[in-house]
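Run folding on both entries below.
>entry_1
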Amino acid sequence: MRGGSLNEMRVLAYCDQSFEIVTRKVAGGDALVITCPPTFGAEFVARSKQVIEAADLIIFNFDAVPNRTAWYLQNGEQVIAADQLNGLDLSRAVIFLMNCYQGGAVLNTLKAQRPKAIIGGAGENLGGQTKPVGTDIMALWFRRWLTVGLSPARALEMAKARLKIGAQTASVKDAQKFEVIV
């Protein structure tokens, strides 16, 4: 993150096409949002490597399964395998996993790429498709706080505080369990 202003923070989001509307709201108007379909994992990494490595914040929004080394679309089709993320330089990025179960076993591959931080929740991480709920609201507020220059840990703390103001739905309670993983 450079300078702390929204115009200077490079946000990249990669998501299930069915989550595109809500992911765009979460990522902000200046973010690059790439969806699957049409862009599956190998193509995402090959065509976007420079963008991925230059991003200050990377948001992933797919389905994950505990102990599986891939992420999936809602229809169960595999999007990206963990080994496709090997070799990326994520050292400048904060990663926000909207994916269920802290991204499953893909998390270990992301950790090995040494990002500044990884934020995620161990639960189902309930979110919406068109209207932000739970995890989406957490990610939105996290991005906003990160944008003004807060550390990832402090941005998450402030996002959680913001969620406490609204209705305490199942999705909000689930999102309250997000943590700084790395």
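>entry_2
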Amino acid sequence: MKDIPYGSLGKKDNTDAYVVIFTLVICFAVGLSEVHLFGDSASYAMMVNSWVHDGDLIWAEEDFERIDADPEMMSLRGLIMKRVDDHYEYSKPAFYPLLCFPLYLIFGQQALLILNGLLLAGIILLSYFHLRQFSDPITSISFSVATVLFSVVFFYTTIAMADMLQFFLIALTYYMVARKR
């Protein structure tokens, strides 16, 4: 029987599965913290809300009425918009709210932080699986979590901003380029 190299993900133990499950649970729990909507976060929240209810990104009277009727949405401060012809549109990039759309249908405003929690889990797991190629599971997960906790990435788990998506895409790109072949 051929020996499995040290650090291989093909080992017969379930350590990697436990790490994945634990990371997803913790990061999902992080996503359940309180949502504070101001500035960019408020804009992203309203963009998702507008897509769900209106199917567009145009600020209309219905959007204002919906905010006025929902106490959770009344905390919005600092919406960022731009004037286009005879109407206003949200002036933030649309990709991040588009990713929040399916989660918003289930979790409402909490979807923004849940998405950030899942992206955080992705960052940790990409780092873990990269390091796992060269090291044991405990060292790999320790360095992965420490890297996130002692960087700016962890700060973005508590506010709904697209920066977490950018961090995830950078981690994914690095993992795809630097992984062992």
